[in-house]
Amino acid sequence: MATERSNGAGVVRHAAAERRAIAGYLAGARSVAPLVPVIAVLGVVIGYVSVATGLSPAAAALMSATTFAGSSQLAALSVVREGGTIAAAAAGAALLAARYLAMGSAASPALGGAAWKRAVLAQLAVDESWAVAYEGDGRFSRARLIGAGLLLYVAHVVATTAGAVAGHIVDPGRWGLDAAFPALFVLLLWPHLARRDARVVAALGATIALSLTPATPPGIPVTAAALAALLGVRRR
What we know:
Layout: H1 2-32, H2 36-53, H3 57-67, H4 70-81, H5 86-97, H6 99-111, H7 115-122, H8 127-133, E1 134-136, E2 139-140, H9 142-166, H10 172-175, H11 177-189, H12 196-212, H13 220-226
Antiparallel strand pairs: 1-2
Helix pairs in contact: 1-9, 2-3, 2-4, 2-9, 3-9, 4-5, 5-13, 6-7, 8-9, 12-13
């Protein structure tokens, strides 16, 4: 009888934990839902630019599915589009994505499970899902991170595929996608300029890029300018 009661209590606790997890998934998805149109527009532009750069629609979709970092993808595409090397494109993209090492490390304890499971789930820790999952005092919600990350991931990959497949019917000059390409980087940068040190880093990066552009191969200015972000490193 005691064993039956114990098993029954375990089933109840398991069911309650599942309900909490589902509620967390839905809460995370709802929190980032207003950002989905923005992510979709970015994905369409990435898909269009990928094909214009020379990738196939399948390769463009695969890049978004395996990278899931719009700013890094745009950086790599811009380097290749201007004739830079694959190494320069990869270096610039890696520097822009370096922040995810710290973000994934911070969220890792909340993910639980084996190391490989944490590594897989950490791929969903992009800027938006990471912020939604943060509960304060260094704590993160695993369920909210997964719910938000999965919604954004699906939107990103689907939009990239749509942009890659249907991008040939779009006139960049007419719709402004040629201007949208650099404008997206300005939008990514703008929220960070409220701090003085961020403005210093941005100005230094711009100076490095403009100085090197006439004298170095494509890709080198972007990679060198990204190193200016090291000034933003602070010991805690």
